[in-house]
Amino acid sequence: MKRLLLTAISIISLSLVGLEVKAQATEGHDYKNAIGGRFGVANGITFKTFLNDQNALDVILNFRSNSKSSTFKLVGLYEIHNPIDTAPGLRWYYGGGAGIGTYKNKETDNSGAAFSIDGVLGLDYKIDGAPINLSLDWKPEMRFAPDNTGVDFAGFGLSIRFAF
What we know:
signal; Porin; Outer membrane protein beta-barrel domain-containing protein
């Protein structure tokens, strides 16, 4: 799993090297793209890109492990961002998406494909004058996997990203 995670991180990083960094910020917020880590119940990397002033795509590649199971998953989220007028740089957002990956039950040694339908609700903050973006969110999911189908409401996470 660690080798697969490192390979995925390398592929995403190399892909981003080819992106043209735009000096012009998207109207309404101070960045167009951001990449970094997501820390919480599941840990991994996250890449967010704005399609316009309000709509963004967030791609998360994460790994989650506990005493009963481990999951490696790629999640795509469509987010709608709304400004908080009293706090410049701070926006709240909501959205949804889906995930696909692998699942392993450590107790029975069963494994297979893992699918999920994901929601998201959070706060996004771009630090003024610094290329740092912070997001704190809740990402509940409905899982479909061998020995692990159900709803999980424990998906809280903090993302720390380099914004460009």
